[in-house]
Automatic annotation (TrEMBL):
<feature type="domain" description="Helicase ATP-binding">
    <location>
        <begin position="48"/>
        <end position="237"/>
    </location>
</feature>
<dbReference type="InterPro" id="IPR006935">
    <property type="entry name" value="Helicase/UvrB_N"/>
</dbReference>
<dbReference type="InterPro" id="IPR045572">
    <property type="entry name" value="RE_endonuc_C"/>
</dbReference>
<dbReference type="Pfam" id="PF04851">
    <property type="entry name" value="ResIII"/>
</dbReference>
<dbReference type="InterPro" id="IPR014001">
    <property type="entry name" value="Helicase_ATP-bd"/>
</dbReference>
<dbReference type="GO" id="GO:0005524">
    <property type="term" value="F:ATP binding"/>
</dbReference>
<keyword id="KW-0347">Helicase</keyword>
<dbReference type="InterPro" id="IPR050742">
    <property type="entry name" value="Helicase_Restrict-Modif_Enz"/>
</dbReference>
<keyword id="KW-0067">ATP-binding</keyword>
<keyword id="KW-0378">Hydrolase</keyword>
<dbReference type="GO" id="GO:0004386">
    <property type="term" value="F:helicase activity"/>
</dbReference>
<dbReference type="InterPro" id="IPR027417">
    <property type="entry name" value="P-loop_NTPase"/>
</dbReference>
<dbReference type="GO" id="GO:0015668">
    <property type="term" value="F:type III site-specific deoxyribonuclease activity"/>
</dbReference>
<protein>
    <submittedName>
        <fullName>DEAD/DEAH box helicase</fullName>
    </submittedName>
</protein>
<dbReference type="GO" id="GO:0005829">
    <property type="term" value="C:cytosol"/>
</dbReference>
<dbReference type="Pfam" id="PF19778">
    <property type="entry name" value="RE_endonuc"/>
</dbReference>
<keyword id="KW-0547">Nucleotide-binding</keyword>
Length: 965
């Protein structure tokens, strides 16, 4: 295999050597490291600049970008620059340990050619080698590779007393091998730190008390678990996050293929230990159902398998099925497994010929439900795979194939006629009585070059999630999920097994540069097919969200020129002109000199969408740039602070004391606790209208579909490349059988009287239910809800309570949490009659409202106005929260409380139906509240506002309506 220096990996190493230029390796002082980091941050931009009091240095590198190679290279660089000889690599699993050893073996000659030194490797299996060489030969460049289990117990070999060490050579007199090691002040590397958070491990690890590097693609998010803050990113020195890696052509594209129907999804809903009973959720005729099951009882949905035990969030059955409590858990029947296997084999052969012509071997990875499916007496998945593979191979051999490829396929069988293209690796594989099986396991784990050779027939690998972090292969081109994954395995981790860029038979990695920077050619080879059941809920959408959420640099708070370079085809002059307008003319971004980054000050999308100057400047690129900012500003905000600033945005917003009294009066009047009451409901009208609407609704038949989607990393969007209907689902027999139970369940779930529902169902077109029970009941539920609300709007009334609403006390402290008002901060001065001292907002129009001085509306004075922190109005849909409230007073002392709901639409017809319905309930609420307060000489008016109106126009309109009344 050919190894080459990659610029991004070298940048990581350069950052580290620059950081440690003034670090004292004899003392390993945490405060000294802190000072080095502070100096580094003055000259370099990092998205996370949190400093810890520990000796950690953190490196975030996306899966598949060569993390292991980078830290092995780092060992040689630290030896070269700082004469450091002793290192420890900690890994969470044996498979990762073997992978690291394999990488050291593969890179041995490369690093020798670069540094003229070999790296000696030790592990915990050789006590004498550690004591006699690693410890005593301090001039030897060596690394000790350990799992956490090697040191996390007092009974471990390394924690036992060692009498053989020459204590004269050490500055202290440790009692155990590990303490002898600690005395050397070795530099540690923690691989996948999110998997090494155990208290026992860190208790022993802390005894090293020396510099350590944490290399990971995943770090815990602060606040999710009690100890996450301790292990969250800090002392960051390099960041190559998920989106950066995709956009820089450092990992494969992803295409997701979805097969089948989700109509039989099964998962554990809850478990009651005292009663030893579990509740399972599944679907019947496309409708969700539940079944209660006690231990040792059979479950018809799993072909009569009995429930053996339930622990934590998993249920174990006699057929070796495991159902997860997570809603994504499911069970696949034999037909579904066969369909997925068939598709995987088709895709493999589809690309194998093309890749073979380029000297690239294609590998496929399968995640299966149970070991028995591959190694059992009747291994269904293995047997089915063999049958399908042979059939597809025979079909292929009838075609006009390249002779070299035909010869390649001739290797598929051994001398005895046994198929030898497939093998499995499972967590219990420590040895095997079967020599061929053992050889296959060894090749998968330890012999990457042999596995990549076109002379090796093995190219289909099966596992039960045992191949996780630490194991990947650059030539995994197809990944098939034949089982639902456990809740602690993210989609990103699954995909990570095949993200690395592929290599050819010369060991050359197929990079973007290698393909002459041709996107089409690059992605024609470097893409990963993922095949999943339709029971996987929004697999690619969830993957995309995980990628976005795990990214730090490309957040909605920072705008980089690199991002714009992708959008504007690298035209530097155009990028500079656009950035200048954003910064100088529109003041949407500001350059932070300390962090050397452009900070987004205000929402860009709203500000540029109607800007003619920018439209003219960007030309054809304008729509793409506009969509980019729309997506950037609408995605969820990253939970980590990306840039620390001395001029920090306030966590609290200050309430102006001189305005608080007036607004408190307004707030206490409009923020009334209320409950909904109904009078004069016309049931028969609802029934007749619901039946009419339902019978007019088109309910199409459900069908089995096949979809192929691709994740376009450059545009960060999902593209559907192919969609095929495989056939209709016939619900007629099952619905006739289940109809009564389904209606009963529907009545309970929708909280509708059964008698009322049966009257509607009796008049409904039954064929629509047979086409798709799920779609029909969903449509019926929405129609009934709409008709009820239409009728209720005429009958609704609000009963206002004299009790104070809990949220009325929010103004008592003189401050409000900033997040209750908005996400953007501006350092300017708000209007004199605006309640808060700071400008916090969510949209451009809100900022204009807050800063515009409007003290009078004709003859009325605006005494105070404010963006509402949390005004909740109950509606039959959901709670409703208006935006702004104004306190107006006329010359006669009459008070008008104006509540406004601003909507970001140019036309009222664009407002979604459910939003309009909530607005209508809010109008009812405030009309009745105004009537209640009429004797107090107070009028309350509620209005909605769209983009074409200014708030001032709304206020004047309100005044006109008020005068008319």
């Amino acid at each position: 295999m050919i190894f080459e220096k990659q610029d991004y990996q070298q940048s990581c190493i350069d950052n580290i050597t620059s950081l440690l230029a003034n670090f004292d390796f004899t003392t390993h002082n945490p405060q000294e490291l802190k000072a080095c980091l502070q100096d580094f941050y003055q000259h370099n931009v990092m998205p996370v600049t949190t400093l810890s009091e520990k000796l950690n240095v953190d490196i975030l590198m996306e899966t598949g970008t060569g993390k292991t190679f980078t830290y092995l290279n780092l060992i040689f660089e630290l030896n070269k620059h700082f004469k450091q000889n002793k290192f420890i690599i900690f890994v969470p699993r044996k498979a990762i340990l073997e992978s690291v050893k394999q990488n050291i073996k593969l890179t041995k000659d490369y690093f020798y050619s670069e540094y003229q030194r070999y790296l000696r490797v030790y592990d915990s299996t050789s006590k004498s080698a550690i004591t006699n060489h690693y410890v005593q030969n301090q001039d030897e460049l060596s690394v000790l590779i350990l799992t956490n289990s090697a040191i996390d117990k007092q009974s471990n070999i390394l924690n036992k007393t060692n009498e053989n060490v020459n204590q004269q050579q050490l500055l202290q007199t440790p009692k155990s091998i590990f303490e002898n090691i600690a005395a050397l002040k070795p530099i540690s590397i923690i691989d996948e730190p999110h998997l090494l958070k155990g208290e026992a491990f860190h208790r022993y690890f802390s005894k090293l008390n020396s510099l350590y590097f944490r290399f990971g693609a995943t770090f815990p998010k602060e606040g999710k678990k009690p100890n996450d803050k301790e292990f969250a990113l800090s002392n960051m020195i390099y960041c190559l996050d998920s989106i950066s890696a995709f956009r820089a052509y450092l990992v494969k594209q992803v295409k997701v293929h979805t097969i089948g129907s989700s109509s039989t999804q099964i998962f554990l809903k809850s478990y009651h230990a005292r009663d030893k009973k579990a509740i399972f959720s599944y679907t019947q005729s496309g409708i969700e159902k539940e079944q209660e099951l006690r231990l040792n009882e059979s479950f018809s949905q799993l072909n009569g398998a009995t429930l053996l035990k339930v622990e934590k969030d998993k249920a174990y059955f006699s057929d070796q099925s495991i159902l997860d409590k997570k809603g994504e858990s499911y069970h696949l029947d034999e037909d579904e497994l066969t369909a997925l296997l068939g598709k995987a084999i088709d895709l493999h052969f589809e690309k194998e010929q093309r890749l073979f012509a380029k000297g690239i071997k294609a590998l496929s990875l399968f995640f299966i439900p149970n070991i028995a499916d591959f190694r059992g007496e009747k291994p269904f998945i293995k047997s089915t795979f063999e049958e399908l593979y042979k059939a597809k191979r025979e079909e292929l051999l009838k075609q006009d194939l390249d002779e070299n490829y035909r010869a390649y396929l001739a290797q598929d069988f051994d001398e005895s006629g046994n198929l030898q293209v497939h093998q499995g690796y499972f967590s219990g594989d420590k040895g095997s009585k079967d020599d061929k099986e053992a050889a296959g396991v060894k090749m998968i784990l330890e012999e990457k070059e042999k596995l990549l050779s076109l002379n090796t027939p093995l190219r289909f690998i099966f596992s039960v999630w045992a191949l996780q972090e630490g194991w990947d292969n650059p030539n995994i081109f197809t990944l098939t999920k034949l089982a639902s994954s456990s809740s602690d395995i993210s989609i990103h981790q699954q995909v990570g097994r095949g993200l690395r860029l592929c290599v050819n038979d010369k060991g050359k990695r197929i990079t973007h540069r290698f393909m002459d920077f041709d996107d089409d050619s690059f992605y024609r080879l470097n893409y990963l097919d993922i095949i999943v059941s339709a029971k996987e809920s929004n697999y690619i959408g969830n993957l995309q969200k995980e990628i976005e959420d795990s990214s730090y640099i490309l957040s909605d708070k920072i705008l980089s020129k690199e991002e714009l370079s992708d959008l504007l085809n690298g035209e530097q002059d155009l990028i500079d002109d656009f950035m200048y307008i954003l910064r100088k003319d529109l003041e949407l971004i500001a350059y932070d000199k300390e962090k050397k980054a452009y900070i987004i000050q205000a929402p860009i999308y709203e500000s540029i969408k109607d800007d003619d100057k920018i439209k003219e400047l960007l030309g054809e690129s304008f729509p793409k740039v506009l969509e980019f900012f729309k997506a950037k500003e609408s995605q969820s905000t990253n939970k980590h602070d990306q840039v620390e600033s001395g001029d920090k945005e306030p966590d609290q917003v200050t309430i102006r004391p001189n305005l608080a009294k007036d607004f408190k009066e307004l707030w206490e009047k409009i923020n009334q606790k209320a409950k909904i009451t109904y009078q004069g409901i016309k049931e028969q009208d609802i029934i007749d209208q619901a039946v009419k609407k339902f019978n007019e609704t088109n309910i199409e038949k459900e069908s089995y579909t096949y979809e192929r989607k691709r994740y376009d990393a450059q545009q960060n969007i999902i593209i559907t490349e192919d969609s095929i209907t495989l056939g209709d689902i016939d619900y007629q027999a099952s619905f006739a059988k289940d109809m009564q139970n389904l209606l009963l369940d529907f009545s309970k779930e929708a909280k509708l009287p059964l008698r009322f529902l049966l009257q509607i169902y009796a008049k409904c077109d039954k064929e629509k239910f047979k086409n798709s029970p799920k779609k029909a009941f969903t449509a019926l539920r929405n129609i009934i809800k709409d008709q009820i609300h239409h009728n209720l709007l005429q009958c609704i009334s609000y009963d206002f309570s004299t009790a104070k609403n809990e949220s009325q006390s929010i103004f008592s402290s003189g401050t409000l949490p900033r997040h209750t008002l908005g996400r953007y901060y501006e350092s300017g001065k708000p209007a004199d009659n605006y309640l808060y001292e700071e400008i916090i907002y969510d949209s451009k129009i809100e900022r204009i409202i807050i800063t515009e001085d409007n003290e009078k509306v004709d003859s009325k004075t605006i005494k105070v106005f404010a963006k509402l922190p949390k005004l909740i109005i109950p509606t039959p849909y959901k709670h409703y929260e208006p935006d702004f409230a104004y306190f107006l007073e006329d010359s006669n002392g009459k008070k008008i409380f104006f509540v406004c709901e601003s909507k970001g639409y140019d036309d009222e017809n664009e407002i979604p139906k459910n939003e309009m319905q909530k607005i209508k309930y809010a109008e009812k609420f405030f009309t009745q509240l105004s009537q209640k307060l009429e004797n107090d000489n107070i009028q309350i008016i509620f209005k909605k506002r769209i983009n074409k109106q200014t708030l001032l126009e709304c206020l004047r309109q309100t005044q006109g309506e008020s005068n008319a009344n």
